[in-house]
Every structure is written in C-alpha cells, then in structure tokens.
Amino acid sequence: MLELNVTAPPAISPPPGKEQQAAGVGILLQISMLVLSFVVGHVLRRHKFYYVPEASASLIIGLLVGVLANISNTETSIRRWFNFHEEFFFLFLLPPIIFQSGFSLAPKPFFSNFGAIVTFAILGTFIASVVTGFLVYLGGLTFLMYQLPLVECLMFGALISATDPVTVLSIFQELGTDVNLYALVFGESVLNDAMAISLYRTMSSVQSHATSGQNFFLLVLSFLETFVGSMSSGVGVGFISALLFKYAGLDIDNLQNLECCLFVLFPYFSYMLAEGLGLSGIVSILFTGIVMKHYTFSNLSESSQRFAAAFFHLISSLAETFVFIYMGFDIAMEEHSWSHLGFIFFSIIFIGVARAVNVSVCANLVNMVRPANRQIPAKHQKALWYSGLRGAMAFALALQSVHDLPEAHGKTIFSATTAIVVVTVILIGGSTGTMLEALEVVGDGQDGALETFESNNGYIAPTYQEGTSSGSKLKMKLKEFHRSTTSFTALDKNYLTPFFTTQNDDEDDSDDSIHNASR
Amino acid sequence: MLELNVTAPPAISPPPGKEQQAAGVGILLQISMLVLSFVVGHVLRRHKFYYVPEASASLIIGLLVGVLANISNTETSIRRWFNFHEEFFFLFLLPPIIFQSGFSLAPKPFFSNFGAIVTFAILGTFIASVVTGFLVYLGGLTFLMYQLPLVECLMFGALISATDPVTVLSIFQELGTDVNLYALVFGESVLNDAMAISLYRTMSSVQSHATSGQNFFLLVLSFLETFVGSMSSGVGVGFISALLFKYAGLDIDNLQNLECCLFVLFPYFSYMLAEGLGLSGIVSILFTGIVMKHYTFSNLSESSQRFAAAFFHLISSLAETFVFIYMGFDIAMEEHSWSHLGFIFFSIIFIGVARAVNVSVCANLVNMVRPANRQIPAKHQKALWYSGLRGAMAFALALQSVHDLPEAHGKTIFSATTAIVVVTVILIGGSTGTMLEALEVVGDGQDGALETFESNNGYIAPTYQEGTSSGSKLKMKLKEFHRSTTSFTALDKNYLTPFFTTQNDDEDDSDDSIHNASR
C-alpha cells in the first residue's frame, strides 16, 4: 500500500573505522536529543505548561540542533545518520506507534463511531484532497501562487490531507478530551492515511502517464479492497495469537521471557504480512492491536501482562518522540526553496478551507442518519476542524514527491508541506488545549478519554429511538450497521471471548491494572 | 575501535510500492524464523535435548531457509533484506547482547578473576593470533593448503581468534557451569574481541602499506589505551545514570514510563559515546551494564526494576536469536569458494593447536602468581580450550576481509571462517554439555552460575596465604592488583554504594526478585 523510494545511505567507504565512528557520533547525538526531549517534556508537564506539548518540544529541539549542525557545518558522514529515511520511518517507527494506539484504545467508542469514522476517512479525505488540489490550481491560475499542473496540485492535495495520527494522538492523549471526539479524530487520522496514500499513488501514476482516467469509483473500490483486506489480516493475526497463547500453556512454568518474545513479535508480523501482501500495514496493525488487547492479552500470565503493557508504552513513546526530533532535524537540514512564500501562505489557508468543507459535509451526512441524541454537535465539528494536524505522514509523502516530480515542483511542495507541518504542530498543537477548553470538550486530566467514557454511557450506547428520522436507503443501511455493532457486542460476549480467552469475567480488573502499570 | 565498511542496501529504486512490499516480505520471513526458533528452542529445552542448543537451532533454521531461498531463486529485492550488514550487527544487535551479559553478571567472580581474564584477553589472543597465522603460513609454504602472504595469514589469525561472546554465553548460560570458569570464559570472550579487532586492524593497515613495522609494544599500548578509555567511559556513564536516578525523584509520581525510557537509553548512549570517541563500544557497554546493575538499578522504583530486568532480557534474547538466524541465512546465501577444502580442514586443526598454546601459557602464568587454592585446575584449562567457540564476531570480521583483501584471498578466508563458525557452533556447541559434564565442571541446572557461587565462597574470596610462592616482580604487581580488588569491595561498601544509591542493605533482596522476574 505504501509507496517508497529507497533512499538508503550512500555506500561510499571512507577510511575504515571512520565510518563507524561517524555513525557513533550521529546516533549519540540522537540519543542525547531523545533524553533531552523526555526531560524537557517532563518539566513542561510538571509545570502544566500546555502551550508546548511534548511533540512540539521534540520538534523544536530537532529544529534547533539541525540549525546548529547546519551552521557548524558538520561532516556529511555524521549528517547522513539524520536524513529522514522514509523506509526507516514506515518500517520501524510507525508500527509501534500505531500498534500502541490500537492496544490502548477503548474499543467501545471506536466501534460505536465506526460509521462516522469511515465516512470521514474515505469521503472526507477525498473531499479535502480535491478541494485543496483545485484551490491550489486556481491560485496558480490567478497568479496568487506558484503555478503547478492540475495533477500535481491534486497530488499535493492528497498528501497534505493525511492528518497525522502521531501528532494528533500525542496531543489529544495529553489533554484528555471527550471520548467520542477522541475516537473520531483518532479513527479518522489513522484510516485516512491509507486513503491519502492511495490517492497520492493514483495521482502519481496519472502524472507519470502510467495510467490515465482512473475514475472515482475505481479509486474508492481499491481503497475499500485494501481496507477490508488489511483489517481482515490484522484481525486474523490477532485471533491466531489469542489461540496460540490460550493453548500453548506458556503462562505457567516461568516462561515469561518466551511468552513476551512471542507476544512482541505478533504485531510486527501483522504489519509486515499486510505490507507483503500489498495491503496497508497501518490499518492491519491497528486492528491487531485492538484484537490482541481484547483477547490475547487476558491469556498471558499476570507478570507478562504488566510487562507487555509497559513495553509497548515504552517503545511507542520512544518512537513517537524520535519521529518529531527526526522531522525537526531534517526540516532544518534539507534544502528548501523559500522563494515561494506565497505558495506556503495560501496553501495553509486552502487546507483550512478544504478541511472545513470536509468536516461540514461529512458531519451533516452522519447527522442525517444518526438519532437525535447521537448527533455530532457543532462544537465537536469545530474541534474536528481544528485538530487536523499534519505531521510525519505528510512529511514522508512530501519527501517522496521530491523524487516523483520535476525538481522545482517537488521542492516547492516539499517546502510548503514542511512549513505546514511546523505551523500545525507548533502553533495549532500548542493552542489545541485552549481551543478544546473554549469549546468545552476537554475531559478532566490525563485519563479523560477513559473517565468520560464511564460517565457518559448514555451518549455512547447505541440506543434506538425509531421514528425520529425519515427512512432513506442509505439511512437504513447505516442503521443496519449500527445494529450489527450491538449484535457484535453480544457475539463477542457469548462466542468470541469464551473461544479466544481462558478467563471470562475479570477483563475489567485486568484493564485497570494495566492502566496503573503502564503509567 | 570497530572497523567497518558500510555495505548499505543498494539504492536502486524499482517501481514504487514494490520495494516496500519486498521489504515487508523479507522482514516477515525474518520474524517467522524468529518465532520458529523460539518455539523450537522451547521444545528442545522442554525435552532436555542439550545436543542442539538454542543457538545451533537458530543457526540451522537460518541455514535451511537460506538454502531453500537459494534453490527457489527468490527475488533479489527480498534477498537484500537478509544480507548480513556488519553495520547493523555492530550498531543494533551487539549492544543489547553485551549489555545484558554485563547486567546479568555476578560481579564478584568476574572481578576476582580480573587479572586472569585480562591475561587471557591480551596475551592469550596475541599468542593465538600469531600461532594461527604462522601455522597457516607454514601450511601454505609446505603446500598443505592455499598459500597466502604472511600478513594476510596474520589477519586471518587475528580475526579467527575472536572467541565469540554471543555464542559462548548462550551455551554456557544454558548449561550452568562453575562460576569461575564461566567468568573466565565469558570475560575472555568479551575482552578479546577488542584485542582481535585491534590486531586485525593493525595487520590490515600493514597489508595496505599504510603503516609498517608497528611493533608489539605499541600494539599492546594501543590496546590498553582503548581498553582503559572504554572502561572509564562505560563506568562514567553508569555512575552518571546512578546519580540522575538518585536525585531526579522519578521513582514516585507514577513516572514509570519516563523512568524506563531514560534507563533504557543510557546503555546505548554509553556504547555510542565510546564508538564516537574511537574506543571500543563493547567494552564500554559491558561496564555500563555492570555499574548500572550495581548502583543505578536500586534507585529505580520497584515496578521499573521488574520491567527493566525483563526488558533487557527480552531484547537481548531477540537480538541473540536473530544473530544466529541471520548468520545461518547469510552463510547459505553468500558465494563460497569451496575449492580450498584443505585450507578449511587445516585451519580448523591449527586454531585448535593455537588455542591449546594460548590456554596453557596463560594458565601457567596465572597459576604462577596465584596462591595454591586459587590455581586454575587442569580440567578448567581443558574446558577453556574446548569452549573457544567462534561466532558472529569472527564472521563479521571475515566479511570485512572480503572487502580488504584481493578477491581470491578474501573469499578463501571468508569460506574458512564460515565453516569454522558452523563447525564450532553446531558440533562443539552441541557437545560442550557432554564435555563439561565429563570434566565435572557443570553446575546444577539453569542457574548454576549463581548457585555454585554461593556454595563456593572459599575458592573465590581472595584469601592471602603469603609465602607460598617466590616473589618475582610480576608476582608482586599482580598481588597488589588482588589486594586492590579486596579494597575495592570495602570502597564499594563504604563509599560508592551510599553515594550512588538511595538504599544500602536490601541489594540482595532486589537481586533475587530480578532473577525471579526475568525468567
């Protein structure tokens, strides 16, 4: 699903020993920055200074060190270790982050909002991409900004529409928002990556004349194919792991290490399986995370449970922090063409407009079929609009576009994306807290997403008040989907949980203990 | 210290998406092999089948899959993911393994045998390298085997003298041997890598005419410089981490994740610091492991202690298993020149002879200065001779030599090393258990190394029976060293432990709890 250009480190060999030493210095610097980020993040959180969330702090540290390295003219052999390699990002940094988000996800709000999430991810991303693309094209025609061909505008629209789960997650989890809003923002940001990547890819093949005139429905079909395939493979791997741990009997006998090794390997297996099949690894590992938490996890011995929860938390926070540092550093190091400030300025405005169109269309569509008590309120729509942060995903695709497009065009897109990432992460990320408070959708503290869920049951439970709305075909379909969600809960309770797990009713206890253990 | 040729993946870009998919398939295969190795290893251990230790099982799995991949003619893009990259090995796989061995090390037997270990590592490795080199040269002159120039013979001698900590550790820990023997074998194998690498490097620069006639003393001096420097930097980083965790107050406040993140980053920091300074990362991270276990560890909160112990155990067993699979696969995939079977056969005999010379000379030297009750007994000498397994370290250096030497020579050396690795790991590794039992140096079960230590105190404690031996200068020096070891224990108890840790007397309790947690 993901498309990459392997930009491996150049294979020149300087005097023996030198290269290894440069690698040492490079990695040393990265570790120091990681340590610094953790310490700064900790200090900021201690003092409840929410205007610079941890993500922004890491990005700023990366930027600063990058600027310093640029000024001091570091050896290229050291610098080589800092280039943002898309491959490294997609294969090693992204999987733990997404798995952890699936693993720590409260499944109920996610599934009860599943229809809305899919609408936002598929239709919304399509709308946002096309609107951005056309606006940028029109801007070029009217000499407001650097002129790009329509196809390239649409490519830019697609890549910039990938709202980034990494950025969004780290900021939302920090603040603790309403559980439904969180589920919407998070779900959209994870699933729309797959859509954005597939859109980008289609446009890219149109641009290189490999295919032409692939229409909208084919596109949606291919997206759905990928999505369903990835979801099934992810769920499948999760179920296999549940059965393995149920019957292998590793929870006795002091086999904690073996148990943990196997448990840790499964998510990565799922990611790579999906990638190997040409599907979306992100979607697959997300569902593996959800299934493994729900079924496999309770088959582990108690000490392994505590370990696994802490392990994934640790790995994902390391990866997350590293992504921001890495991105900041690379932004400072890469050559930019700042000559087109107009392009940057207007594209920021245009993506705001495009996201407004996206959110209002999709929200209205969802509200049309939802009963009155489950409507997406206006303040949630505003929060959704505001929280469309762009991050590592857009950045990685923009780096890709430098290879795909004519030089000046690629550079312009890359610089614009870079600027948008910095602006959204630092400015919007820093003000999201204030914004969410102003909209009164903030939970009470760190664990808000979970606590609001408990106190908020009426809103979540799919209660059906038939007759409150007119019955169009689409509506009936969606209602059926809702009903299948409820019947899924029954199915889960009566068949899946007994089949895939050893215990049955102490789920909630173990959930609590993990949350204590992982913090 | 380490010298490397960056053999990064070639930067060709096939059709977009394809490359990512190939990477997915490659990594997927690797994960499957890891899972298989763990399962096979578990089954073998369950049935107490010690003729195939886990290391051999992994190597064999790697070999088999490699052969299959070779026959089935897999795409090169997938194959690319399996090439043994020395850089990846030295930067990412080796550090966790060595750290874990330092971290899980019982420090007393290691330090009470420190003099002997250093003798074996420096003098012993030098003897073994030179003897092997000259024997191979003589073999060439007498047409017994493929003829190589003397310098290249010495290079081969150096690289093949690196007894591998990875291989040795995994087999010895499994069996549980006498604690002093374990300390000797393990200590030698870790420290002699630094010596072997530095010897190899010197010979390599002589070969390429960069330097000529660097003499023995300069070599030893440079080794000692590297060694002392690496040790100091490792110990220094360890002490800094101890102070940080003592005063940062992270063990309260539910900051387990932050605490663990920082704790996990320190060892890697130490490794990269040493590499960046041109020192030996292996030696540095080993001492960081020892110091962090002894001081930093007790400053952690209890849950973090449990987590950290399990974490390092997990990471190192993953890395260890992966190294063997990786090596087995690469052995099956690389082109070998099997035309020189004579070379392989005789070099196996020669390294046996060289190791016998090495062990008997060093052991006699050590016994000369040790009191009667601390002599290295003949059966330990035999075990030491037998346990000189060659593994990943020799393999990585041999890969290096393919780049450094004329083609036919490099290939011959590489094939011989490969064969030696397979023979020592599979045959000797498989029979080490029987051998150790025959020599009656086996402990009682998994945890022998620790248990024998308790029951064996008289042998370990440096008791001085003055006047049992004549007083040469060397002897006096070494005695002083012994005395400094005892006074180190006092220094530790009275100054270091109170200064670097928060608690003082519950060390032993926490040690126990870790051992329970990590298994």
Automatic annotation (TrEMBL), chains A, B:
<keyword id="KW-0630">Potassium</keyword>
<keyword id="KW-0739">Sodium transport</keyword>
<keyword id="KW-1133">Transmembrane helix</keyword>
<keyword id="KW-0406">Ion transport</keyword>
<dbReference type="GO" id="GO:0005768">
    <property type="term" value="C:endosome"/>
</dbReference>
<dbReference type="GO" id="GO:0051453">
    <property type="term" value="P:regulation of intracellular pH"/>
</dbReference>
<feature type="domain" description="Cation/H+ exchanger transmembrane">
    <location>
        <begin position="37"/>
        <end position="437"/>
    </location>
</feature>
<dbReference type="InterPro" id="IPR006153">
    <property type="entry name" value="Cation/H_exchanger_TM"/>
</dbReference>
<comment type="similarity">
    <text>Belongs to the monovalent cation:proton antiporter 1 (CPA1) transporter (TC 2.A.36) family.</text>
</comment>
<feature type="transmembrane region" description="Helical">
    <location>
        <begin position="307"/>
        <end position="329"/>
    </location>
</feature>
<dbReference type="GO" id="GO:0015385">
    <property type="term" value="F:sodium:proton antiporter activity"/>
</dbReference>
<feature type="transmembrane region" description="Helical">
    <location>
        <begin position="341"/>
        <end position="363"/>
    </location>
</feature>
<feature type="transmembrane region" description="Helical">
    <location>
        <begin position="412"/>
        <end position="430"/>
    </location>
</feature>
<keyword id="KW-0050">Antiport</keyword>
<dbReference type="InterPro" id="IPR004709">
    <property type="entry name" value="NaH_exchanger"/>
</dbReference>
<protein>
    <recommendedName>
        <fullName>Sodium/hydrogen exchanger</fullName>
    </recommendedName>
</protein>
<dbReference type="GO" id="GO:0005886">
    <property type="term" value="C:plasma membrane"/>
</dbReference>
<keyword id="KW-0915">Sodium</keyword>
<keyword id="KW-0812">Transmembrane</keyword>
<feature type="transmembrane region" description="Helical">
    <location>
        <begin position="216"/>
        <end position="245"/>
    </location>
</feature>
<feature type="transmembrane region" description="Helical">
    <location>
        <begin position="383"/>
        <end position="400"/>
    </location>
</feature>
<keyword id="KW-0813">Transport</keyword>
<feature type="transmembrane region" description="Helical">
    <location>
        <begin position="88"/>
        <end position="107"/>
    </location>
</feature>
<dbReference type="GO" id="GO:0098719">
    <property type="term" value="P:sodium ion import across plasma membrane"/>
</dbReference>
<dbReference type="InterPro" id="IPR018422">
    <property type="entry name" value="Cation/H_exchanger_CPA1"/>
</dbReference>
<dbReference type="GO" id="GO:0015386">
    <property type="term" value="F:potassium:proton antiporter activity"/>
</dbReference>
<keyword id="KW-0472">Membrane</keyword>
<keyword id="KW-0633">Potassium transport</keyword>
<feature type="transmembrane region" description="Helical">
    <location>
        <begin position="265"/>
        <end position="287"/>
    </location>
</feature>
<feature type="transmembrane region" description="Helical">
    <location>
        <begin position="113"/>
        <end position="138"/>
    </location>
</feature>
<feature type="transmembrane region" description="Helical">
    <location>
        <begin position="22"/>
        <end position="44"/>
    </location>
</feature>
<dbReference type="Pfam" id="PF00999">
    <property type="entry name" value="Na_H_Exchanger"/>
</dbReference>
